[in-house]
Design goal:
The structure is a homodimer of 286-residue chains.
Chain A: H1 8-16, H2 24-43, H3 47-63, H4 70-77, H5 80-87, E1 124-133, E2 143-148, E3 170-174, E4 180-186, E5 191-192, H6 198-205, E6 211-212, E7 215-221, E8 228-234, E9 253-254, E10 256-258, E11 274-277, E12 280-282
Parallel strand pairs in A: 1-11, 1-12, 8-9
Antiparallel strand pairs in A: 1-4, 2-3, 2-7, 5-6, 7-8, 10-11
Chain lengths: 286, 286
């Protein structure tokens, strides 16, 4: 038999998989094997360190449920999720950002101008803007699907046991004939990602906090265009410079301006205290 | 705020951890972040591929129990465990190999010459050799801790529900005044690693089998010397060239020779059909 050493092993492992040459599966599998093996050789990983990594993954698995995705959280705090968003952002289109764990794909359709706050306390903001292509042509009928935390930094879906409706603070809007969308809601507050599990231990070991800056979540769609999943943040607000999950991009930060009558060219169900304007740009499907 | 892009993100993630400069924790964390981010950039990982990786880890977590270590198995089939063994093998010492999932740290002490087969069917082999340092000086009193599968490729610990004693086919021996050990047992057979979980799916996707060549497990210890965890394999036996977990090294393959009276300078409880000789070499603690 041909002997295997710490250098020739990597090729032997790759060769053991009879994958379709140059298939995407082969590229990703080989890439992952190369990087994990390089990491092990470069750092001369000890058995104790190796076992600690594996037990960390085991612990992440144990705390995970269909509602608690510790591996997604791990990916988030290591910037892996943000990087996937970045490498998939299309030139000219609005930058992508975290989907997060709280999206529901059957949120209620609401008319333009509706209020999403469901009588919650806090600053009432008008959120408005246009959905266009990268040449500024409006995209009438674009779908703007949004969800968010309340003014205490909590998503209603997290407090269903306290009687909250998981569909609160969510809405799906259809942009008007000029590609415009508008609605009122409560200004969300920062919140922490879950830190009672292995990922929380990692954050503590690295003296990191678990806070995310306040944000609104969006998925924006239009036929023939690439959908974008992104978040809108607010200028100068807490944690904007050190989001625990690296979701903030400069292009995704909006100003919160006091509402003056002149700022509000739209009919709204509720009278806002402040106004946030953000335009979405979609790129065509390739 | 300073904007972050797909290249500057990696440093930002590393900087977010306030780790002790150049500490081992920092080196490993930064190394892992660098490699995962490089992997993502090099292959422009899509959201679907990213989610598939995370759901694969989630599934590994769900099937794992204290007795079923899917993450260790994953590490094994990707050659990561073998590589950790290789980078930690000391020059001059016996090469390390997989610990595997079936080690028990309280196996029974047995006298030299004892039989471990507990009346199991199969080829009775005499296993013998010396434990020395790298200058061939015997190490009297060295501890040779061994465990193995039976002639059907099964570990008794896997069949406790069928009435098997989990301590069968295990023994802890103390080398004699010349560093020699010897015992009889049954020649083990190949077996498969568990392939009913996510790792099995990965093997099938890569058209790989789940077989390991027959082997004997060892941990060998002596005061003042580095312990070794390793496996001994048998020349020309099935799967010796394509172990599913990459445990085989050329230096760990022993011959199985027919027993002739002259080959057996030892007293044994049972008369062997064949003889396997293997010497262990330990390096001093650094």
């Amino acid at each position: 038999m041909k002997d295997i050493n710490e250098y020739s092993l990597t090729q032997a492992v790759k060769d053991s998989f009879k994958t379709e040459p140059d298939s995407r599966f082969e590229q990703l599998l080989h890439g992952l094997i190369d990087h994990l093996h390089d990491f092990t050789r470069e750092h001369q990983l000890t058995h104790e360190e190796w076992m600690r990594v594996l037990m960390f993954l085991y612990d992440c698995g144990k705390i995970s449920t269909p509602e608690r995705h510790e591996f997604i959280l791990l990916s988030d705090v290591l910037g892996f999720s943000a990087l996937v968003d970045m490498v998939n952002s299309r030139g000219g289109a609005t930058e992508g950002s975290n989907l997060g764990p709280f999206y529901l794909d059957n949120a209620p359709r609401k008319p333009l101008g509706a209020d999403l706050s469901d009588e919650r306390d806090g600053v009432c903001i008008l959120v408005h803007g246009k959905v266009t292509d990268s040449l500024h042509n409006p995209l009438p009928g674009a779908i703007v699907d949004t969800w968010q935390a309340d003014a205490a930094g909590t998503y209603p879906i997290q407090e269903q046991e306290q009687g909250q409706d998981k569909m609160d603070l969510r809405g799906v809007f259809e942009a008007d004939e000029n590609g415009r969308y508008w609605y009122t809601t409560v200004l969300p507050k920062p919140y922490t990602v879950p830190y009672d599990g292995p990922v929380g231990e990692l954050l503590r070991a690295g003296k990191r906090h678990a806070w995310r800056p306040a944000h609104l979540h969006y998925i924006v769609r239009h036929p023939g265009m690439n959908s974008i999943t992104t978040e809108v943040f607010f200028e100068n607000m807490d944690y904007i410079d050190n989001d625990a999950v690296f979701g903030v991009r400069k292009s995704l930060i909006a100003k919160v301006k006091p509402a003056k009558k002149a700022d509000i060219p739209y009919e709204t169900q509720k009278t806002p205290d402040a106004v946030v304007e953000f335009d979405f740009v979609l790129a065509p499907e390739s």
